[in-house]
Design goal:
- Helices cover 81% and strands 0% of the residues.
- The chain is an all-alpha fold and 132 residues long.
- Helix 1 packs antiparallel against helix 3 and helix 4 runs antiparallel to helix 5.
């Protein structure tokens, strides 16, 4: 097995932290009517499935980064980035881009990860994929 780049290890740890935060938030949203009322969130298929899928993709890609797995790391990492950026864009389209500047910080990690996966770490995943 090739030596894993340090950046992939760092991204894996960040993915696990974000996955925990997403899943804790989802659990809180589902179990606390007071949280739903104060946040103004309405429980729907989208508000449950989107963070659930995001959390799952974060965990799978984090494990994939550690194992340098092409499917789990690279593909799921790309899917997470697309889903996250798509959710932010969809939310802003629905709200008429009101308060868009507040969502810019949440776009940083998926954008950075997408760039790093496609520009820097793609070869590391290809090498490990070819050796298996």
């Amino acid at each position: 097995m090739n030596k894993r780049p340090t950046g992939l290890t760092i991204f894996a740890v960040i993915n696990f932290i974000f996955a925990a935060l997403v899943l804790i938030s989802l659990f809180t949203m589902l179990t606390s009517p007071e949280f739903q009322k104060t946040s103004g969130l309405v429980v729907s298929a989208y508000t449950v499935l989107s963070p659930l899928l995001t959390g799952i993709l974060l965990i799978i890609s984090g494990v994939g980064f550690i194992l340098q797995s092409y499917r789990a790391g690279y593909i799921c990492g790309i899917l997470f980035c697309i889903l996250s950026l798509g959710n932010i864009l969809a939310f802003n389209v629905i709200s008429g881009f009101e308060g868009f500047a507040l969502h810019i910080p949440s776009m940083v990690y998926p954008t950075l990860l997408l760039l790093m996966l496609t520009l820097k770490y793609k070869q590391a995943f290809k090498r490990s994929h070819e050796t298996t």
